[in-house]
Automatic annotation (TrEMBL), chain A:
Residues 7-235 form the ABC transporter domain. InterPro entries: AAA+_ATPase, ABC_transporter-like_ATP-bd, ABC_transporter-like_CS, ABC_transporter_ATP-binding, P-loop_NTPase. One of its GO terms (biological process) is response to antibiotic. It comes from Streptomyces malaysiense. GO terms for molecular function: ABC-type xenobiotic transporter activity; ATP binding; ATP hydrolysis activity. Pfam families: ABC_tran (PF00005). It is a peripheral membrane protein. This is ABC-type xenobiotic transporter. It comes from the Bacteria.
TrEMBL record, chain B:
The keyword Transmembrane helix applies. It is found in: Cell membrane; Membrane. This is Transport permease protein. Pfam families: ABC2_membrane.
Length: 325, 259
């Protein structure tokens, strides 16, 4: 049913020379939802978006965007989508206002100047409206980019790392815009390296790996897929080895060590591993236990487990974690 | 209004605004031929068989056409830069005619070039160049000049989309400086050795320059030259239309396909 899914692709393939970038992309995104497309570098996210936005032609497979065939009705698809970020940018040699007026004109919006003024106001860009976009800060440019995508309400919006590098106010504008859009029935395909962002914005997550969708589901479903994160915090780092050995015995997996927090943690899907049992086993082994927990995994854990790669260079998390893992 | 015309006009406006927002580059580009007129006109002019004032009158059409040939470089650079910055990709995701983006680039370039040639003409008048033919002929000369610029820009856009590299465009631009040197833009080809004369006379710049000199009444059509120079107006038209026919369709296709 064309109206149920805003994006529906079957077996999309694309190769560049001998290199397969997409090896059969099957994606179904329900209308009015936010889908986060996640995956390590080289998984094919960019190629997927470039195909779905008519920037590239698929070698095989088919897709419908808001019910229109991606290849045969490409011109119609273009009237229904909007694209931002690394896939398409604004013109740095034009002012913010000139950019918005131009895009409004190309979209045949009535009263392009008025629409430009409205969007500038809504995204807090009125003060810099008549400066060249090249002089904007990263956050201002990102907001202008999003505003340019909204000169006319799109059926499907392709958003690329929308809040990266934004201050809290900027993130607020973007999140509010996404919520307003989905409330009006727009579907959003979000690509990001920041799992926290996907966790907060996305209804569903499609995890890409080596040119295919590896897993789909809500953030909670994906987390359930890999189980729980069991962690023990000990009184002094010397006891970490013993704690790790207990965790290893209980879960059959080698735990990751976080020496600076004196913690050892591991993912488990074993339903018999309850918190009291975890505490009892650690205590019985003589571990000087300060804290023990069983918590849902972060999307980072999911990502790591399901694709076997780290999502980003982990600047924000602790560097020893990767060595240990 | 047709979609193509509407989109082309909107995008031509965009290109012209870009020039207005940062006019420095356009100004620098216009300085070049004026400097060359003064430099060549007085330095070379005193060493050539043509008397000084006569050489400068001979030189002005040559510089106009060299400037027009610079469309190759400008077109290439702009097309490569737009591709590089993802602006072109944004247009390609919009419901915009596929041909509108390259056409608008060439159209805006024509406006900028036409305005940019005014200083060269004024300095030319000051150092002795005159329109010595009729007004319709002079208008024909300007028409041919702009048609040739359009053709060179089309070729440049195609090459720019092909290479997608501003660096490559810069390098090729620097070497395209020799193209007018291998023509009759700065010197009469009559005294060149036979093989070199053949190359120079089959250079499109020669046909267009000779046509301008003929229509402005600055110099007679040389005798015994190759066909495009011996029939300069027809030669200039054929060269320009051929360049457009060869480069514009693939530029539009390449833009549509996204390289």
């Amino acid at each position: 049913m064309p109206t149920t899914y805003a994006v529906l692709s079957e077996g999309l393939e694309k190769r560049f020379g001998a290199v397969p970038a997409l090896r059969g992309l099957d994606l179904a995104i329900a209308r009015g939802t936010v889908c986060g497309l996640l995956g390590p570098n080289g998984a094919g996210k960019t190629t997927a978006v470039r195909l779905l936005t008519t920037l590239l032609r698929p070698d095989a497979g088919s897709a419908r965007i808001a019910g229109r065939d991606l290849v045969r009705e490409a011109a119609a698809v273009r009237t229904l989508i909007a694209v931002t970020g690394q896939y398409a940018s604004v013109d740095g040699d034009l002012t913010g206002r000139e950019n918005l007026r131009l895009f409004a004109r190309l979209h045949r919006v009535r009263g392009p100047a008025a629409r430009a003024g409205e969007l500038l106001e809504r995204f807090g860009l009125t003060e810099c409206a008549d400066r060249r976009a090249a002089t904007y800060s990263g956050g201002m440019r990102r907001r202008l980019d999003l505003a340019a995508s909204l000169v006319r309400r799109p059926e499907v919006l392709f958003l690329d790392e929308p809040t990266t590098g934004l201050d809290p106010a900027g993130r607020g504008y973007v999140r509010q815009a996404v919520r307003d859009l989905t409330a009006d029935g727009t579907t959003v395909l979000l690509t990001t390296q920041y799992l926290e962002e996907a966790d907060q914005l996305a209804d569903d997550i499609a995890l890409m790996d080596r040119g295919r969708i590896a897993h789909t589901g809500s953030p909670a479903e994906l987390k359930a897929l890999i189980g729980w994160y069991a962690e023990a915090v000990v009184a002094h780092p010397d006891a970490l080895g013993t704690a790790a050995a207990v965790l290893d015995r209980l879960t059959g997996r080698e735990p990751a060590l976080h020496r600076e927090r004196a913690a050892a943690g591991v993912l488990t899907t074993d339903p018999t591993l309850t918190l009291p049992r975890l505490v009892r086993e650690l205590d019985a082994a003589g571990v000087p236990l300060l804290d023990a927990s069983l918590r849902p995994p972060t999307l980072d854990d999911v990502f790591l487990r399901l694709t076997g790669t780290a999502s980003t260079p982990r600047t924000e998390t602790d560097p020893t974690e990767e060595q240990a893992a | 209004m047709s979609t193509l015309a509407y989109d082309t006009i909107a995008l031509t406006g965009r290109q012209l605004r870009r020039v207005r927002n940062s006019p420095g580059l356009a100004l620098l580009t216009q300085m070049m031929p004026v400097n060359m007129l003064l430099f060549f006109g007085y330095v070379f002019g005193s060493a050539l068989a043509l008397p000084g004032r006569e050489y400068r009158a001979f030189l002005v059409p040559g510089l106009l056409v060299s400037t027009a040939a610079g469309g190759l470089m400008t077109g290439m650079f702009q097309a490569a830069a737009d591709t590089h910055r993802g602006v072109t990709d944004r247009f390609r995701t919009l419901p915009v005619s596929r041909a509108a983006v390259p056409l608008a680039q060439a159209a805006a370039d024509l406006v900028v070039t036409a305005l940019g040639m005014v200083p060269l003409l004024l300095v030319g008048l000051a150092v002795g160049w005159r329109i010595e033919g009729s007004v319709p002929e002079a208008m024909g000369a300007v028409g041919l000049l702009l048609l040739f610029r359009f053709a060179c820009t089309c070729a440049g856009i195609h090459l720019g989309l092909l290479t997608r590299s501003e660096d490559a465009a810069g390098q090729l631009g620097a070497s395209s400086f020799v193209l007018p040197l291998l023509s009759d833009a700065y010197i009469p080809t009559g005294n060149l050795p036979g093989w070199l004369r053949t190359i120079a006379e089959w250079n499109p710049i020669s046909a267009v320059t000779t046509a301008l000199r003929d229509l402005f009444g600055n110099a007679p059509v040389p005798r015994g030259a190759a066909w495009p120079v011996a029939h300069p107006v027809a030669g200039a038209l054929v060269w320009s239309l051929a360049l457009i026919a060869v480069f514009l369709p693939p530029a539009v296709r390449r833009h549509g396909r996204g390289v």
